UniProtKB/TrEMBL annotation:
The keyword Flavoprotein does not apply. PANTHER family: TRNA SULFURTRANSFERASE (PTHR43209). One of its GO terms (molecular function) is ATP binding. This is Probable tRNA sulfurtransferase. It is found in: Cytoplasm. The keyword Cell wall biogenesis/degradation does not apply. Keywords: ATP-binding, Cytoplasm, Nucleotide-binding, RNA-binding, Thiamine biosynthesis, Transferase, tRNA-binding. GO terms for cellular component: cytosol. It comes from Paenibacillus mangrovi. HAMAP family: ThiI. GO terms for biological process: thiamine biosynthetic process; thiamine diphosphate biosynthetic process; thiazole biosynthetic process; tRNA 4-thiouridine biosynthesis. Gene3D superfamilies: 3.30.2130.30, HUPs (3.40.50.620). Its EC number is 2.8.1.4.
Length: 407
């Protein structure tokens, strides 16, 4: 089919009163950035909607890209004709011809007369367009309720828009329109999904990753960079803070409190993430925690761990099942990377039985006994390397120049 235009519908943010303009502008900027590789395409803005005139650009390819824009809930490819009855019937007929129906299909026409000067009201148009189509295409059977094929006809002064597909898009809030958070990004399945779902709600996300070289390998770090790069595909670019964690982590070993190591590590991670958040102007911390998934994600573990920060900890996956998380990971393109078998700093020195019910007083007294813990945390922040990743980033090249200093 030769489509003339794409119709993009905005999501729920249109309910947001005086912020609506700001949200719409953000979506518009995002759409423009996608359209920069489709020079013939042109944007037309209308209240509550966007139109992209294709001018010969490839519709299906463009739809694939526009579908990922946060704030857009659906897209319809549209054929445009002059707002005259005979032209509308003619164009609707060729529209259906192009669909090449092979079996009996339930059908209705839904006309909408937006341009009130057009001589036939909407109801009448349903019949004026529907009857000749039903006569010509014998496979069509009228059904008012839930038809398989609904031909929509929008009559406007500048032209009539004809379409039947409503392709679901990602939805949510426009990119970066709801403030900034620091995402604790491990190499696992969960945290990239937590990042994506946060971004979809309009959160600008900066990633923080803790690595314990040489206990964790370069490959593990490269994997996290690759994951951040996938996330940057949704955000345009993503900052990744790489925090050296070896010293802090090893200070927790040999204390005779192995079952609390994970609790202690998580508390230190949160403290560092909080310092980075302050530095970067972020107002929340995001994790991939899911209730009960592992020992550190029991209610009492999260309680003891969460006390280290005054910032809200956002846990988008907290009530999701692993299978649901995996489904999203597959859809957003992080799953295959996440299952690569490189170790994370939380999987080395894992105690046989990590505490599921850690005692806050004991944890605090262990931390108090480590005189230089605060200094180590501050040093880790100072030695943090920050990289900015985009979908085009060459990660191997970035790693080539790394020398020992990096760790
Ligand atoms: P993921 O949750 O990403 O799949 P996982 O399940 O192996 O990895 P957990 O041990 O369950 O990770 O950790 C819970 C959360 O703690 C992660 O979702 C992530 O937000 C954070 N986290 C764990 N390890 C790291 C790390 N090395 N760097 C940054 N954040 C981490
Ligand atoms: Mg997890």
């Amino acid at each position: 089919m030769n489509y003339d235009m794409l119709l993009l519908r905005f999501g729920e943010f249109t309910l947001k009163g005086k912020n609506r303009n700001r949200f719409e502008k953000t979506v518009l900027t995002h759409v423009r950035s996608v359209l920069s590789s489709y020079p013939a395409a042109q944007i037309q803005k209308e209240y509550g909607r966007l139109y992209v005139a294709l001018n010969g650009e490839n519709a299906s390819q463009l739809i694939e890209e526009l579908k990922k824009i946060f704030g857009i809930i659906s897209i319809s490819p549209v054929v445009v004709c002059p707002s005259q009855l005979d032209k509308i019937v003619e164009t609707s007929t060729s529209f259906l011809e192009n669909l090449d129906l092979q079996k009996e299909t339930t059908f209705k026409v839904t006309a909408r007369r937006v341009w009130k000067a057009f001589p036939h009201p909407s109801q009448e148009m349903n019949h004026l367009v529907g009857s000749p189509l039903l006569k010509k295409f014998t496979m069509l059977k009228v059904s008012m309720k839930d038809p398989e094929l609904q031909l929509r006809v929008e009559i406007r002064e500048q032209g009539t828009y004809i379409y039947c597909e409503v392709i679901p898009a990602v939805g949510g809030f426009p990119r970066g329109s709801n403030g900034k958070g620091m995402l604790l990004l491990s190499g696992g399945i969960d945290s990239p999904v937590a990042g994506f779902t946060s971004m979809r709600r309009g959160l600008e996300v900066e990633c923080v990753h803790f690595y314990s070289y040489p206990f964790t390998s370069l490959k593990a770090k490269e994997k996290v960079m690759e994951l951040a790069k996938v996330l940057s595909g949704y955000a345009g670019e993503v900052k990744l803070h790489l925090v050296p964690f070896t010293e802090i982590q090893t200070s927790f070993t040999g204390l005779g409190q192995d079952n609390l190591i994970i609790t202690l590590m998580r508390r230190s991670m949160l403290r560092i993430a909080t310092m980075l958040a302050e530095r970067e102007g972020a107002l929340a911390i995001v994790t991939g925690d899911s209730l009960g998934q592992v020992a550190s994600q029991t209610l009492s573990s999260m309680n003891v761990i969460g006390r280290t920060t005054d910032l809200p900890i956002l846990r988008p996956l907290i009530m999701m099942d692993k299978s649901e998380i995996i489904d999203i990971a597959k859809r957003i393109g992080t799953y295959e990377l996440s299952i690569l078998p490189y170790e994370d700093c939380c999987t080395i020195f894992v105690p046989k039985s990590p505490a599921t019910n850690p005692n806050l007083r004991i944890v605090e007294s262990i931390e108090a006994s480590l005189a230089n813990l605060q200094t180590m945390l501050e040093e880790a922040v100072e030695r943090t390397e920050t990289v900015v990743l985009t979908p085009e980033s060459m990660i191997e090249a970035a790693e080539d120049g790394i020398d020992e200093e990096w760790f």
